[in-house]
Predict the structure.
Amino acid sequence: MAPASHNAVGRPRTSSRTVIEDAAAELFLENTYALTTIEQITQRAGVSRNTFFNYFGAKSDVLWVELDAAIDRLAVELREIPNGQPALAEMRAATMRVVSDIGVDRVPLALTQVDVMGTAEETRVSGLARLARRSDLIADFLARQLQRRSDDLLVLSAANALSGAISAAWTVWARDGIGRRPLSDYMSEAFDVVSTGLSSALAAASSVE
Amino acid sequence: MAPASHNAVGRPRTSSRTVIEDAAAELFLENTYALTTIEQITQRAGVSRNTFFNYFGAKSDVLWVELDAAIDRLAVELREIPNGQPALAEMRAATMRVVSDIGVDRVPLALTQVDVMGTAEETRVSGLARLARRSDLIADFLARQLQRRSDDLLVLSAANALSGAISAAWTVWARDGIGRRPLSDYMSEAFDVVSTGLSSALAAASSVE
DNA sequence: TCTATTATTGGACTCAGTACAATATTATCC
DNA sequence: GGATAATATTGTACTGAGTCCAATAATAGA
């Protein structure tokens, strides 16, 4: 039984992986992320320290399981879009398809308990790695649709901006806690901001005020 | 003589700090970033290992000296803008003021020699920390101008998008190598993309093609 | 020169992450 | 079922970043 890749989407239930995830979540909440060692996690999970690294490439990976899965699905969605489609609209639609699946129970660990776990700074960096990965996916997609290189300034700017907006939606959604609206609501709003342009979005915001 | 803070903007010439920076730059180019240890750096610099940590909080900080300085200056510029100004225009102007100073010799180490140093993956993450710091600055500024909270979705989306676009400009500028145009050119282009909106920017791009 | 401040150093430590070989466990095929 | 191959788990040993703290050197100011 292969532990599959680190960001596997498939889920053999109650494997070592799951046990480790649960143990980690508990300990992060009890002692904060920073003060929890991998050894403690694997001890509670009843496996050896090395087994941790069979399933996760880094301690912080446990925090982002849900987000990684979402990014995996986005990659698939984008790959399946044929050439010559309206790039932004397709990009948005693909994101919305992925996000519509996400229920309240799928909040990335790092985002839910940012206060409780004292994860603010430590997890920030690892979260940014996800932003970067999503940027890459989007840049590749845009480059393909626009027939430009993926390190073209227009492509990169747009990809980074989109990934940043998506990230903002996740963050605010997670922080809104219980009673939050569906993630797709937040995502739509974030897309609106970058789609119509910051000049109009910000102007509208300040005139309303 | 205080080593000042980690991202000091002032420059006491030929202090331990400078010596360390130079030694690090040499070694990164010779042996790549990953294979260079802090011990090697301080050895060549003729100081003790601990002195490194007097000036830098992490090994990767050496890579981002120039960018950190630019972000410091951006922070100052933004702080000095009075309330009630058009947010996006001021933000853009402040960025351009900072960037107009940057000559060809001020390319962040991490960005120039990304190929030579094999820094691609390792430095990516530390670079993202800068993106985040800039996002925070921009979010605070926008929140003040728009009279909203700095974790508001509109504010965060816009801040992330802007920071992402700025990051793209730096990246492409650095990668263009010798013969590149001034950084401000790239920055203008990146701002245009997010200002006018991705829907028009991307539509224009695909119709041109 | 004396003194307070700050820079530098030494030493000991924790922990994440890597490498690799050894062993256990499960699946597959006959 | 039993042999065998594939994969999961573990043990051991290691590197190197980053932290802490106390000791000492260097410098500035009076």
